[in-house]
Amino acid sequence: MAPLGPFGPTPTILAGVSGGPHSLALALLLARWVLARGGRLLAGIVDHGLRAESAKEAADVAGWLVARGIESRILRLGLAPGPGAQARARAGRLAALLDLATTEGAGWLALGQHRADQAETLLLRGLAGSGAAGLAGMAAARSAGAALLIRPLLGQAPARLEAVVAAAGLAPLRDPSNADPRFTRARLRAALADAAGQGPAVAALDQAARAFAARRARQAQVVAARLAVAVQLSEWGFGRLDLAALGRDEVAEAALAGLVRMVGGGAYAPSEAAVGRLLAQGAGTLGGARLTRQGLLLREAAAMAPAVPAVPGALWDGRFRLEGQPPLGLWLGPLGPAAASLPRPAWLPAAVAATLPALWRADRASRDTVLAEVPALAYSDFQTSFDIRLRFAPLGGAGG
Q1: Does residue 367 surpass a pLDDT of 80?
Q2: What does the record give as EC number (predicted)?
Q3: For the chain, where do the domains classified as CATH 3.40.50.620 start and end?
Q4: Partner of 11 for a Cys bridge, out of 39, 140, 247, 273, CB 3.0 to 4.6 A?
């Protein structure tokens, strides 16, 4: 845990627990670590609802953990089976866990991926043609907006984690999809033929991911230095770029890729080739963001997400998270054409105004949607104030 810190006194950590051997080992090991520091460990158990037995399994896992003094919460997604079920389950699981982290005040979300998972990820990304950043595999720690996502077991062989669970007297759940040959990861796992994660192939892939990760860390420092002199990023989701200072080299491509992901609200940065073309053109759209020849990088208005219920912790457009306690019945979404009727401060480009986050409410008399508040413009039609903040918090990233 030490390389993932600092954690400070009495940390509150949320662990994602599926009931499989590796996430159970994570919970058991973290429980000891947190207890020694007087902190709090909470296990988040996500029931995707994709199998008839999933509800009972989630309840069983919660019972196992509670019996060992580990506080648990079951999060039910109710996903429908069908195409892309695994991808939808991953996205829904992460979103639900991050929402729980926000609600419970957990600054860290711990996941149970291990060394063999890292090896499989490297193979998957290699087959997909990922660049050096993608070949660094999953990051041991990265920001996920609502919490710092950490993977304390990333360097551990799965056999060691199985031993921890066996010593605790638990019979872990086994997800049948992990061996389903319809999924690429399952086929790669079968090809590696190393369930213990202690063979030479897994070790070599793990070392390769570590080397790429070290390269990525070095590049991140160089990119940060370039951004410091070439970019001004606004908390309201746009940036001003000095294109001459940014340059057109590999560092510029990496810097612009990260900016596009942030401003466009994407889960991943665009490809190096696509970013290179955008730099060469000097203007255009990519990944939900638009770059002008004047160096303004802003959200592509037509690509913004629809409004979402304005509940505490709500994330809109992959970029803005609502903090605080707004009144009931509000929606968080784009300001849109209503921007034209509001005074625009000098710091706000006209093209950006429509992409600002705003709160909307339904008017009971007219049944029309009425603008309630625009935090960026200090506009509100409420008679009394209430505690609300919006935080620019794009999620995801190439680090996985």
Answers
A1: no
A2: 6.3.4.19
A3: 2-197
A4: 39
- Supply the mean pLDDT for the chain: 90
Element (H, E) at 118: helix 115-127
Tell me the one-letter amino acid at 147. A
Give me the amino acid identity at 289: A
Q: Residues 262-275: pLDDT tens digits?
A: 999 987 888 888 99
Do 365 and 350 meet the contact criterion of CB atoms below 8 Å apart? no
Compute φ and ψ for 75, nearest 5 degrees.
-115, 115
Q: With pLDDT > 90 as the criterion, what percentage of the chain qualifies?
A: 68
Retrieve residue 362's tokens: 């339904």
- 2-197 CATH, one of 3.30.420.480, 3.40.50.720, 3.40.50.620, 3.40.50.10490: 3.40.50.620
Tokens of 382: 């409420």
The rounded distance, in Å, linking the Cα atoms of 17 and 95 is: 14
Predicted pLDDT of residue 398: 41
